[in-house]
Amino acid sequence: MTRKRRANKSPLWARLALLSGALLLVVSGGALVGGKVLLDHYSSQITHEGGLGGAAAEGATIDGPINILLVGVDERTGNEAMGVRADSIIIAHVPASHDAVYLVSVPRDTRVQIPPHPSTKYDGGTDKINAAFWFGYQNGGGRDGGLELLAETVSKLAGGLRFNGGAIVNFEGFKGLVDALGGVHMCVDEKVTSVHTGWNTKTGAEGVPYYFNADGLPTGLKPNMRAQVYNVGCYDMAAWEALDYVRQRDKLANNDGDYGRQRHQQQFIKAMLTKATSAGVVVNPLKVNAILNSVGKAVSFYNNNVSLADWIFTLKGIKPDQMVTLRVNNGKFNSQTINGQWFEFLDETAQGLLAAISQDKVADYVAGHPEMINNDAAQPATSPTTTG
Question: Where is each Cell envelope-related transcriptional attenuator domain found (predicted)?
């Protein structure tokens, strides 16, 4: 049976990253929001100005192709001196036909050239892409500055890609959003062992099951601890289970690390949209209100001067089955160590995909590279997840 779990206040849970309550809002919003008055009320809680800098698309319009930068961050509450890094970076691309959404995860360890950011006294340099948010966050830049520099870095990596919107996800609020949905139905495509959630076999108390070394990698199990395990199969997951599952990257059965985590995060976004647009949600006014109240706590959506009503009207026709999740580097590590530091590099096919996004030719590109598509996990329904 699924075990009840007390709230975990650890700021490390914010590493959930990726999670796109903003995408949930704009794609399913047509079903969830009933009128302009309600839209205006929630718009003030959700939308923010700025945040995209030189990577912002010109003009307050989303009539053509649409690109949204989705960012999950590791926010160390009470330790601002450590700054904030982007733990998940996802490009959501909607073609000009507005009949699909393509999700592309950029590996957070990708070696890139980060442009200068004078407002936070950063001179530019070569680093991992997740550091861009950190450099933009420093010296008063905050979340706006972090998103701006990251957007400009991704734009440079993708040959001048421009963004119509961006979003930063906050874990604690996001957990409330998934709770408001009543959990999600997830299909586990490889056995995943949680290094963050476990149970004491003698007392039944929850705790972190593994010891970690100085690099943050798990070593051995702690005495009397049993880790939470997600076995292959399809389950109705509570918020804590789904968020714990998509957080994992160290003990995945296929040893695919960050690539496995990226795939699971993309699947989770699709599962959320499926649940949000289901009949049991959209016809329940109490659920709708709870969801809308949670979105503003979960997501900071930078709308690039396009009204929330226009976002929802433009994208409301896109259904979860029109969402295509894509992998770069064929889901495999493409790493090099330079001056003692480990980096990921995008292969030729991945670079071609980014160029196709900039040119709004993703459908044609993917048709020529079908191996890039992350197939949805779809096993027969089984019993709920158990601790292993």
Answer: 85-277
Q: Which amino acid is residue 306, in one-letter code?
A: V
Domains of the chain: 17-181+296-387 (3.30.420.590)
Say which residues have a Cβ less than 8 Å from residue 189's Cβ, sequence separation at least 6: 232, 263, 264, 267, 377, 379
Q: What is the pLDDT of residues 211-270, one digit of tens each?
A: 999 888 999 999 999 999 999 999 999 999 998 998 899 999 999 998 898 899 888 888
Q: Which two tokens stand for residue 125?
A: 């340099």
- Kindly state the tokens that stand for 218: 């798990």
C-alpha closest to that of 128 among 102, 116, 110, 144: 110
The answer to whether 218 touches 210, Cβ cutoff 8 Å, is yes
CB 276 within 8 A of CB 224: no
| Amino acid code (one letter) for 207 | G
Alpha-carbon gap, residue 379 to 150, rounded angstroms: 37
Q: Is the dihedral of CA 187, 21, 351, 342 positive or negative?
A: negative
Query: Taking CA 61 as the corner, what is the angle to CA 58 and CA 63, rounded to the nearest 5 degrees?
Result: 120
Structure tokens at 326: 């894509």
Match 């089984």 to its residue by tokens. 382
d(CA 378, CA 38): 37
